[in-house]
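Please check our next protein.
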Amino acid sequence: MAAQQAAKKERERKEKEPTPNRLTMVWNRANEYIKKRDFESAYRLMLQEGDDMYLLRLIVQTGPVMKYLEQNSARQVLARLNKIVRGGVFETLEVEWIDDSKRAGHFTRLSMNEQNEYLDTLYWLSR
């Protein structure tokens, strides 16, 4: 009996896991909402899905649309966006990629302007 319950829980867990195909379908549905200017439904859908990359994709695609969102959705979007930004994932990626390009010998082959752009970014991140 315990083995059956464990198997059932595992099946339920896998059903809830987002798969690329499922995420694509959800993203397409969100785009349909956007075409209808139903931003509330699009954001609610992405918030329920729990995938930060797709939420960021939606944020970039729509731009700020807070006046079209209900208070609860607006609060959730701001909270998730704040958590993503404060997590520093993009800053960490930038530093790792610049460091790796230096170790691989690509950085020194960039123009002085390009190198300065990246060094300015590193300086900005260090403040």
